[in-house]
Amino acid sequence: MTPRPDLLARLALHAQQREQAGLRRRLRVIERVDGPWVERDGRRLLSFCSNDYLGLAQHPALVAALKRAADDDGVGSGSAHLIGGHRSAHAALEEALAEWTGRERALLFSTGYMANLGTMQALLERGDVCVQDKLNHACLLDGAQLAGAELKRYRHGDVDAAARQLANRGDAPALLATDGVFSMDGDIAPLAELAALCRREGATLMVDDAHGLGVLGERGEGSVTDAGLGQNDVPVLMATLGKALGCSGAFVAGPATLTDGLLQFARTYIYTTAMPPALAAATLAAVRLAQAEGWRREKLHGLIARFRQGARELGLPLMPSPTAIQPLLLGDARSAMEAAQALEQRGFLVTAIRPPTVPQGQARLRITLSAAHEEGDVDRLLEALSRAPRAQPV
Ligand SMILES: *Cc1c(COP(=O)(O)O)cnc(C)c1O
Known about the structure:
binds pyridoxal-5'-phosphate; about 15% strand
């Protein structure tokens, strides 16, 4: 009998293979954050890789709300929502999120990853079909697999391909899930067309709006409202609290039948500790600011337009994105790493995104803009990009 393979040795071997392919991931410590500036290894860098799109993560109103609530209630919630961890700060935040997104109810989860896993595991059963855009976030793909549904992926943004996949399984209960704004590409899903398709096919539409909430829509309601759609078109809406809202956590919003069902069956909701109530209080302050301070969105969209204009003039490999995520497509992983290193030498923090996070041959610099940036910051980034090693055309 051959000896049993050792799991840790196998893991080490896989890590070594990543290293050899030039794809090893490394953790680096950020020592300080000051708006868009970060300090790493004692050096100040201007960061273009945070998802704090509205510049709220360090806002004094959020910090004050967090402190006040922690003074009153302490830090940890002590238990799961259903056991005794559900405090008035959670309830108030859920109500505000439902109202903001035009939904009957909202239910908090500790992270977006858990929200998607729990929602899909509660909604889907073996034999169901889950149709998804190829570029959906990893947790949507994992969620369908965890639920045991048949996962069918369609070409990015291709509504006809999605229609064919639904038609192939015309008899099965079906969920069509898509990112509202794609996390590595920044483009927006064809939501109105997908909603029409789901209506025709009797499928349920789920949108993950992690990068749309706060950024899109008149009052930051997100990509779904911005597309002119409501709860009937998109019955399952998920969004996160750790991006434009500058906090942490997530919610799922929709009709009461959805949130009641999640409360009964979503295992990542039931069997986990409720988020700290002080965090819910801070997030409520963030929601109020995101709704009221339209200037943050206007400033952000001004910076997006400025960046795109400048990048076009420089002939940089821009992708067609109208949102805060402005990737430059460099192709191979090495080019992306070299460009990121060259930028770091010039004082900018921009992360290279490599496979398997993005498809082979589509490594990129994922540049993100924020209302915390100034026009001069964007101009200086463009100037540095014009000197960075040029990508091979892809
Ligand atoms: C970030 C992200 C998530 C995960 O949210 P977390 O709260 O960070 O776990 C889910 N979906 C998309 C599209 C994301 O970008």
